[in-house]
C-alpha cells in the first residue's frame, strides 16, 4: 500500500496531484488558519483585516509550493507570466471565498470569530484544487 501511495505521490496523475496539493495546500491553509485565529483571538483586529493579513502571507507561499511541487509536470508551463497571473487571480477567488465565510460566520450569523476556520479548512481548498489544476497550471 505504501509503495502505491509513493508512486501516485510522484506521478503526474490527478491522484498524485491531489495528494501533493492536499499536503502543500493543507500546510498553507493551516498556516493561514493559524495566523487568522491568532490575530482574532489575541488582538483587537477586525476579522476581515485578520483574513487579509493571513491571505497575504499564504499567497506567496502557496504560489511557490504549488507551482514547484503540487502541479509539477502538469501543463505546458510555456508562459510563466500567464501562469503567475492566473495563480494570483485564483488566489483572489480563494480570498473572496474566505472573506465570505468570515462575513457569514461572524457578521451574518453572529458566531464566534474562530468559526470561519471550518469552511476555510474544508470547503475553499477543494474548490481551489479544481481551479488550480484546470485553469492555473493547465
Tally of distinct domains: 1
- How large a portion of the residues is in β-strands, by DSSP E? under 5%
- Which regions have little confidence, pLDDT < 50, spanning 5+ residues? none
Instruction: Classify the secondary structure makeup into a structural class.
Output: mainly alpha
**How confident overall, as mean pLDDT?**
85
Number of strands: 0
Helix content: over 70%
Q: What general outline do the C-alpha atoms trace? A: elongated
Rg of Cα set: 16 Å
Oligomer: single chain
Q: What is the string of helix and strand elements?
A: HHHHHH
Task: Specify the biggest β-sheet.
Answer: none
What is the first-to-last residue Cα distance?
A: 30 Å
Please report the number of helical segments.
Answer: 6
Amino acid at each position: 500500500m505504501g509503495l502505491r501511495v509513493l508512486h501516485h505521490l510522484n506521478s503526474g496523475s490527478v491522484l498524485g496531484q491531489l495528494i501533493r496539493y492536499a499536503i502543500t495546500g493543507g500546510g498553507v491553509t493551516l498556516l493561514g488558519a493559524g495566523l487568522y485565529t491568532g490575530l482574532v483571538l489575541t488582538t483587537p483586529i477586525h476579522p476581515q483585516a485578520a483574513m487579509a493579513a493571513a491571505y497575504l502571507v499564504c499567497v506567496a507561499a502557496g504560489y511557490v509550493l504549488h507551482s514547484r511541487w503540487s502541479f509539477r509536470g502538469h501543463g505546458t508551463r510555456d508562459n510563466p507570466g500567464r501562469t503567475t497571473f492566473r495563480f494570483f487571480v485564483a488566489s483572489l477567488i480563494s480570498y473572496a471565498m474566505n472573506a465570505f465565510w468570515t462575513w457569514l460566520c461572524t457578521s451574518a450569523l453572529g458566531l464566534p470569530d474562530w468559526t470561519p476556520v471550518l469552511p476555510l479548512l474544508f470547503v475553499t481548498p477543494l474548490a481551489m484544487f479544481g481551479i488550480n489544476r484546470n485553469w492555473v497550471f493547465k
